[in-house]
Amino acid sequence: MAVLTIARLHPTELSPPPPRKPPNKLAAAGFSGDAGGCTGRILAADFEDDTGGVACSGPSPTQLSQPRTSTLVQSPPPRRAAVAPGDGMVGVDGTQFVVDCGRTIFFSGFNAYWLMMMAADPALRGAVVTAFQQASAHGLNLARTWAFSDGGDQPLQSSPGVYNETMFQGLDFVIAEARRHGIYLLLCLTNNFDNFGGKRQYVRWARDAGHNLTADDDFFTSTVVKSYFKNHVKTVLTRVNTLTGVAYKDDPTIFAWELMNEPRCYADPTGGMVQAWVEEMAPYAKSVDGRHLVTPGLEGFYGDGEHESKELNPWGIYYGTNYVATHQAAGVDFATIHLYPDVWLWGSTADEQATFFRNWTQSHIDATAAYLGMPLLVTEYGKFLWKEVGANKTQRNYFLDLVLDAIYASASSGGPLVGGAFWQLLLDDDIVAGMNNLRDGYEIILAEDSRAASIIGEHSEQLAALNGQDAEALCRRASSHRKTRLGSSLSCGGGDTLELLLRMLLTCFVSLFRSISSFIVHKFILL
C-alpha cells in the first residue's frame, strides 16, 4: 500500500476546529463562530489575511435568508459568438458551453486539488487513476485542480521561473489520465491564500529580490510580481506533455484556465485593483493560448453598489471583487460562483441556509443572464461535517440535492447555470494510507456514502442527457422560458427535435423522484 506523505496538501486547516469556532475555510470566508457577541454573525474582516477587527457587521442569517424578489429589468446582452472549433475544444455560444462546432455540453464535476502533488510520486499515481475511474463511473466529466505550487517543500515553481520537473511530470500524468477517462480539466494557476504559496509567495519572492512591497495585495499591482505571474502562465500554457507530446495550450482535455482561486483584495474594497489585474491577465493568457477559455476564479461576491450586494452579501463588499464588472472584462469567457451557505451564515438553521442558497443562486443566474450573457459554473460547493458543527451526511446530501436540482433546472431550460463541481473528492484511506489526513469536513468519498454517490450519479445522467443539443435551439428555449416567467405563453419556436423531447421526458421522471425524496428527507428526517 502506498503511503501519502505530501505536505501542504489542502488549502484549509486540516485539524478539527476548536470549540465554537469554524475552521480555517470559514475564517478564509471572513466569518467567526467565536462567542464575544459575534456567534452566528457575519464579519467584515478576513482572519486568514489578518486584517484585524472582530466587530460584527451586516444583518443576521435570518435577515439574509428572507425570500428575494428579483429587480432585474434589463434585457439579456447580445449573444456571444461560438468559439468552439471542431477539434474537441470547449467554447461558448451565448450562455452555453459548446464543443464540435456548436453542440452543447454540461458539466457535472468535482474538486481534487491534490492530483498533481499525488501524481508527482510514481508510487502514489494509482490514487489519481482510481479517482478518475470513480469519477467516470459516476458520470462526472469535469475536475478542477491546481496547476501551481509556489515555493514550499513540494513546489512546482521553486522560485520565479525555476520549475520542478518531477512535479510538472505529475501534472502531465494528471492530464493524460483525465484524457483517458473522458474528463475535462479546469486548471487553476495560483491561490489568493497562502496554501501552496499563492499571492503571498509571489510578493515574498519580490521582497527577497529587493523590491519594496508591504502587503500581499501588492500582488495585483506590482510590475515585478505581475511579470513573475505572467511567466508562470506562459510556462504552464506552453508546456509540452511528456506523456502525450501535446502542448497544454493545444490539449482539448483542458477545459479552461482559472487565473486564481478565490481572488480577493482588501487593499481596495472597490474592486478596482482586482478588476485591473483581470483586465491585464485574461488577455495575456489569451495571447499565449487563444484556444482555451479563461475565467478569473471569483466566488461570486457583489461589489458595493452592484446588483443586490446589500441584500445578499453585505460582508462581500469588503473583499475587493465585483461579480458583474470583473466578469465583463475582455478575455473572460464564463462566470463562476462558490456556495457555502452553512459557513457564510454561521449558526443559521437548515431552512435559513436553504432560502439563502436559493436567493444567492437565482440572483447570480439573473445577473449573469442580464449583464453578462455567458455561461455560469458553481466551481465549489459543499457542506461542512465536523462533529462540532452537528451536521451529518443526511443534511449534506439534502444540500447536494438542492444544488444539483438548481443546476439541472437552469440547464434544462436554457439558463446560464450549466454545471458545477463539489468540494472535494477523496478516496478511502485503504487505497492510499494517509488520505484521511486530507479530510477537511467537506470531503465526499463515494465508496463511503452510497446516497451521495447516487445523487451525484443521477445528476450526471440528467446533464448527460442534455449534452449534444444545438445551442441555437437551446437559446430559443431559454427565451421561451423567460417569457413564461413573465406570464406569456410558452413557445419553443418549433426548433426542438423529437429526440430532445424524449430526453427531457426521461429526465423529468428522475428529477421528480429526487424532488419528492428530498422533501421527505427534509421534513421527516432533518427536522
From TrEMBL:
It catalyses: Random hydrolysis of (1->4)-beta-D-mannosidic linkages in mannans, galactomannans and glucomannans. It holds the Pfam family GH5_mannosidase. Residues 1-29, 54-86 are annotated as: Disordered. Its EC number is 3.2.1.78. One of its GO terms (biological process) is polysaccharide catabolic process. Keywords: Glycosidase, Hydrolase. One of its GO terms (molecular function) is mannan endo-1,4-beta-mannosidase activity. Residues 89-423 form the Glycoside hydrolase family domain. InterPro entries: GH, Glyco_hydro_5, MAN-like. Residues 59-74 have a biased composition (Polar residues). PANTHER family: MANNAN ENDO-1,4-BETA-MANNOSIDASE 4, PTHR31451. Belongs to the glycosyl hydrolase 5 (cellulase A) family. This is mannan endo-1,4-beta-mannosidase. It comes from Oryza punctata (Red rice).
